[in-house]
Amino acid sequence: MSDVLLWAFLFTLPGLLLTALGIGKRPGAASQGGPPVIFVVALIALLTGANAELHVAGWLPFLPDGAFHLRVDPLSALMLAVVGGVSTCVYIFSLGYMDPKVEGDGNVRRFFCLLDFFVASMSILVLAGNLAVLLVGWTCVGISSFLLISFWNDKAGTLSAGMQALAANAIGDAALLVALVLVPAGCGDLVTLGSTACIAGPGGATLLALLILIAASAKSAQGPLYFWLPSAMAGPTPVSALIHAATMVAAGVYLLARTHTLIAAAPSIAATTAIIGVLTAVIGGILSLMQGNFKRGLAYSTVSQLGYMFAAVGFGAPFAAMFHLVTHASFKAMLFLTAGVVIHALHGREKLSDMGGLRKDLPGAYAAFMIGSLALIGIPMFSGAFSKDLILEAAQGHDPLPPLLWLGLFGGVFLTGMYTGRLFFGVFHGPKKYHGPIHQPAGVMLWPLVPLAIGAVLLGYLEWPVPLLSRVLGGTVGPAEAVHFPSVMGLAAGALGLVGFGIAGWRPAAQPVRATAPVAAHHDGHGDHYVEDLEPGVGWADWAAEQGYGLANAVAGVQSGHLSRYIFISVLGVAAILLLTLAGSTVGVSQTITGPR
Amino acid sequence: MNAEVLVLGTSAVLLAIGATGALIRRNPIAMLMSIELMLNAANLLLVLGARVRGNVDGQAAALIVLVLAAAEAVIGLGVALALFRDRARADIDEPSEVAG
Predict the structure, then answer these.
(1) A381 to each of A370, A396, A420, A454, B12, how far by Cα in Å?
(2) Residue A357 confidence (pLDDT)
(3) pLDDT-based confidence at A516, cuts 50/70/90?
(4) Which residues of A touch B12 (CB under 8 A)?
(5) Which of B5, B13, B14, B15 should be substituted to probe chain A, the one whose Cβ sees the most A Cβ atoms within 10 Å?
(6) What's the pTM value of the predicted model, to 2 decimals?
């Protein structure tokens, strides 16, 4: 099956074509086949020892390593299983969420075509064996992310949100491009990037690892590049669940896990990764507490959880990062889809101030959100607990870094409990704030929650009591630490999270809400997207943009439109070339050509 | 002075006249004529080269340049005509506002 999995990026293309051509009675029905096939093939490949390569040399001959190189190994098969599994659920959910009667047939078809394009791009990204192929997938997922964030392009703010994502992604793409040019010939292979021969290039391992870290941070919304992810919530909720919670934003972590030997070869970059991860985990958790929008609260939670994964890579435990990626994909996708059910039920209202007391009206969503919350906080026995404890243990056992980082991650669990509780109690408990008719979800929107809920509870048992996952992954992400359960720290972290959860439920009114006035609110079927200012702390992006504009204007001045000036410059150029050519020889015709002017 | 040097000199002088014309004239028709002069200077050199080397490669290249010159003249005259229709005075620097 590994050989079949090599072509996973083609699996959604038939669906894309059929949907685009308008074949199939219900818009999007034709696309449903692709993701389950990826999921099943990836699972079979994973269980039968995934191992296949495709290597076409000379694909981009002008690059040091321009081969078309795809690789199926346990790591990529695991990631593809996550992508396939989550997208299967999201595709089914979207059949109900994107109602052709509200959106129009053509728009729903466009939506599913874009989803298909995203899954294909993501498959290329995951399968990439070298930097050149990785860059193709990396850029394509960025483009599909932009197109899907701006899907409702008639709504105020969606285009600007998409542009923010595109801008942040462009920084990451540029870093990857530089890395691609920098690596010595024959060294583009992602697995062997850290080998001695490959870090012999200019700048060595540190520069290469830094570029990889920048690319990963841009994709995973870490450090100063976090700003685009909360804005990306302007897109439809299934998109938020698939792209901006479970798969694409996890690509940064995947890349770091993939190149963990390179990160390990550059200790300063590993430390930087850990510090960025911890800071983002803590700050993301605090900012989540201040959001007035349901989805943005969840988005900051994603930023925070991705911070945990980055920290794990920085602490030298890429396996823990991948483990958390898998469990997080399941419960965060479910939380987002549940948010979709709630928003759908309230006719597109997304603000927390419109929600409250919905547990009787939406019992299915209530149960799903509760399971997702418990997994997210890391209550023992739920999946999030196993993976998060592994990260906390890695942080504790890491000597060269100050214990403050571990404390940050440990305290972050309290924040996780608090912001999760704030959303949970704010939406489902307390007084009712919306008294209009509830739009009950169709079954097609509730059934996809079931497998995700099962995953949210059970995925942790992949590693305990028998370390199945690390055994299947083999050595592809380095040695795996054993899960200790029950452990003192795990129970303490769970208790801390529960305390935060309880405080949020006990004093729901005490939560601060960031006061940003909605510029344009829409209550017409799908979503109240309001423009907000750029996230705090991204003034540097404005500054950089201004410098860029200044430079562009200066260069554009050369293009005056005066033909005679153009000719004059051309003649000067020709004269210069001639003079240079003649400098060596003794043919005396240079006088004639330099004559005019 | 043998024939080769004479042709070489003629070619150089033609190119200089053409370049000067293209630089100092503002009238599009005059500029087109100057450009034709420069192309012909190049053609002379090509034919001369073919003669000196004793093969026909240069002559073939000269034929291609002739065709190119004809094509360029067609487009150039078309643009010049459009300019004449659009404006009372055909100054090549006047429509600089169309710069991208």
Answers:
(1) 14, 21, 18, 13, 89
(2) 83
(3) very low
(4) 589, 592-593
(5) B15
(6) 0.77
